[in-house]
Specification:
The structure is a single chain. By secondary structure, this protein is mostly helical. Helices cover about 50% and strands about 10% of the residues. The strands form 2 sheets. A 3-stranded antiparallel beta sheet has the order 3-5-4, with helices on both faces. A two-stranded antiparallel sheet has the order 1-2. Strand 4 and strand 5 form a beta hairpin. The chain is globular, with a radius of gyration of 23 Å.
Length: about 350
């Protein structure tokens, strides 16, 4: 994460200020980040500056110099973010859940690391990580806009012709510990008027074949405002402003999470109701009307994710990062419509523990 945040802070040709000036003249934006699955650099530019933007992207991706002063500045920034997270109940709950579910694996800690691990990182390690990870092997270049594909493809070949590097090692398979039963983890914050309640288990990878059906199941359970969990805890009981559930999108099996900020006196009631909703999906078939409403909702909101070129780029990145088939989003409506009542109950029994 520290390496990724430094990618746009200078190259062997341009300083950080010079890069910022170039981005401004392109009428665009520049960002870089690392998450659980990839390092990414995103650059936007006016259509007439596509060629110059591509050249700048290539320079940043291939020639980042990671100046020592910038390493220290970004390190302090990351340390400040870690300190801020320690004051946020939702971050404390998220981190505690990750530690418990994924003890002994890379998913156990935040991508920011810890104050100790951040303090120990040296510029030499950053250079080593960049040389090892930022190679064309397994990389994807995504361009979305008013483009002339064949001419642009030729320019891409010329611009990135000297980008090289060895193929990266295949990451080790994630092996979360096998847990039995429901385990409470308590973090005391005296006089807090509300309690951040997070409940979860190990879920599935983004490319898991059950994923399309689980998207429908999760939307019905806690993925939309009219979901069962939100209507129960917010509308019926009035103990939260909102409750939700999600299956995290990761290459390996990410967590399934139910989260809500509830009145502290109502924590026990909230836990019982969430567990009851999970069990109800396992025991009782969903009504045809509720399934149809959920499918209609998912199909209705999907086009909104593609209204902007950034949204389309994100969907294309999903295909590349998670190894999804190229027709995954082309067939999205059919995948959602194909989920049956029996499928939902089978998925609930298989994945909701």
């Amino acid at each position: 994460a520290l390496t990724a945040s430094l990618i746009d802070e200078g190259t062997d040709r341009s300083s950080a200020l010079e890069i910022a000036h170039q981005v401004e003249t392109l009428g665009g934006y520049l960002s870089s980040q690392a998450d659980w699955d990839c390092i990414s650099v995103a650059l936007g530019a006016l259509a007439k500056h596509t060629g110059r933007g591509l050249e700048l992207l290539a320079e940043i991706g291939q020639r980042a110099s990671f100046p020592e002063r910038e390493v220290e500045r970004l390190r302090q920034q990351h340390l400040a973010e870690l300190k801020r997270r320690q004051a946020q109940p939702s971050s404390l709950a998220s981190d505690a859940l990750s530690r418990d579910l994924y003890e002994g694996t890379i998913y156990a800690a935040s991508t920011l690391g810890t104050p100790t691990s951040l303090a120990a990182i040296r510029r030499s390690e950053i250079l080593s990580i960049a040389g090892r990870e930022m190679t064309p092997a397994g990389a994807a270049l995504i361009l979305v806009g008013d483009l002339e594909p064949q001419a642009l493809l030729q320019q891409v070949r010329e611009t990135f012709s000297d980008w090289n590097g060895e193929a990266r090692a295949t990451p080790n398979q994630l092996q979360p510990p096998h847990r039995q039963g429901l385990r409470p983890v308590l973090i005391d914050r005296p006089q807090a008027p509300q309690t951040e309640l997070w409940m979860g288990s190990v879920g599935v990878s983004r490319s898991h074949p059950d994923r399309p059906g689980l998207q429908v199941l999760n939307s019905l359970l806690g993925g939309k405002f009219t979901s069962r969990i939100n209507l129960n805890l917010r509308e019926r009981l009035g103990i939260t402003y909102g409750a939700s559930s999600s299956f995290s999108q990761r290459r390996a099996a990410g967590p399934f999470i139910v989260a809500a900020s509830v009145d502290s006196e109502a924590v026990g009631k909230a836990i019982r109701e969430v567990l009851w909703e999970l069990q109800r999906l396992r025991d009782e078939p969903v009504s045809a009307a509720e399934l149809a409403d959920t499918q209609s909702y998912l199909q209705g909101i999907f086009p909104f994710t593609l209204q902007r070129i950034e949204g389309l780029a994100d969907r294309l990145a999903d295909l590349a990062v998670y190894g999804l088939p190229r027709d995954y989003f082309t067939d999205y409506f059919a995948r959602v419509a194909a989920v049956t009542l029996a499928d939902l109950q089978d998925l609930a029994r298989k994945h909701l523990h």
